């Protein structure tokens, strides 16, 4: 057979070699092709080409920094998760092949069992669970499946910054409603729970065109855990106006100080209109695995499956198998001291407290989060002492401050103004976000100071974390 194939290629080679000169002439013509006159990019990409993450990650990588900007752990996943992944790679060779399009069956089954108990629902793996390429993929699939041209999507500010472009790419119109911080007295600690929705303002954002509301609890970047009363307000308005709730709950296992995470889908009347989104990356400290999921009623999920099967179709099998085994292990230890969720929470709260004290020691005013990987801190004192940092005249102060800190203090953070709509950015340009789920937040690292050391270009002398 191989000789026959070789003969066929040999037979083809002759005519091709005979046309070598003509091919060269054709290549010359192709090089003279003029640029296309038509607009190449789809209109839905207009204004979305610039991403602040690219700019700040590039700047951090070009300088020797302690990276407290990006939201990923700098330590290994738990041993059982690592062993599960190794077993998936070295065990059953069929895990190198396709699995079910909407999720590896053992994973969809354990997700249905695990979260069905938490949400008070009898969940069917094939109807109520969809495995996606990370929670990011879950969000994109949800927006593409449910948001139509002209639909309005209510987004609570500050918001995880992909919500707005994903709404726009689906043809929707983002409608923003801010969390408003309560004024605090000098010397008083500020907490994410002090940032509240105005019930009247929220209610006024709902119109006949409202299709969805995006909820993020615990939230990024603020670390707010929405209370039951706040969730009941959102649920009431969603039901009154027949609106879908897209609930991003990737940090649900990181809720501090005895606060309780409540999934809005567990409230009366909300399962039927809620998509609950989760992340194995945040659950098992393995963000590079990119395994996420959506949970919801079949009447919504069937539309997400349509998008999924006509886009990515399938997620990597081995990572799904590792996540399935990790959840099966966690089911056996759930709520016990041996539970990874319990251990991760305790370790992360310790890091949060350490970073909070360190920020206070250098004159910053952190907003203490109730949950998540993140806290934001008020840099107003720096803004008054150092108002003329380098940067474009119209550039938000927090962006200039982060660039100054990266270049002069070896510390990377993210400006909070990028988590706001353009009209509101100028009102919140005196906050920056730090990620504290880092080993560095326990053992020392970057430094920042508003002292005279900045004028000499040397690193500051006060430890931040």
Automatic annotation (TrEMBL):
Task: Specify the superkingdom.
Answer: Eukaryota
Q: Which InterPro entries match?
A: Aminotransferase_I/II_large (IPR004839), Kynurenine-oxoglutarate_AT (IPR051326), PyrdxlP-dep_Trfase (IPR015424), PyrdxlP-dep_Trfase_major (IPR015421), PyrdxlP-dep_Trfase_small (IPR015422)
- Known catalysed reaction(s)? 3-phenylpyruvate + L-glutamine = 2-oxoglutaramate + L-phenylalanine; L-kynurenine + 2-oxoglutarate = kynurenate + L-glutamate + H2O; an S-substituted L-cysteine + H2O = a thiol + pyruvate + NH4(+)
Q: Which GO terms describe its molecular function?
A: cysteine-S-conjugate beta-lyase activity; glutamine-phenylpyruvate transaminase activity; kynurenine-oxoglutarate transaminase activity; pyridoxal phosphate binding
Its localization reads: Cytoplasm, Cytosol
Regions of compositional bias (Low complexity) in chain numbering = 448-459
Q: In which pathway does it act?
A: Amino-acid degradation; L-kynurenine degradation; kynurenate from L-kynurenine: step 1/2
A Pfam cross-reference name: Aminotran_1_2
Q: What is its main location?
A: cytoplasm
Key words, A-Z: Aminotransferase, Cytoplasm, Lyase, Pyridoxal phosphate, Transferase
What cofactor is this protein dependent on? pyridoxal 5'-phosphate
Protein EC: 2.6.1.64, 2.6.1.7, 4.4.1.13
- Lyase found in the keyword field: yes
Assembly information from the UniProt record: Homodimer.
Return the PANTHER family for the record. FI04487P, KYNURENINE--OXOGLUTARATE TRANSAMINASE 1
Q: What is this protein called?
A: Kynurenine--oxoglutarate transaminase 1
UniProt gene name: KYAT1
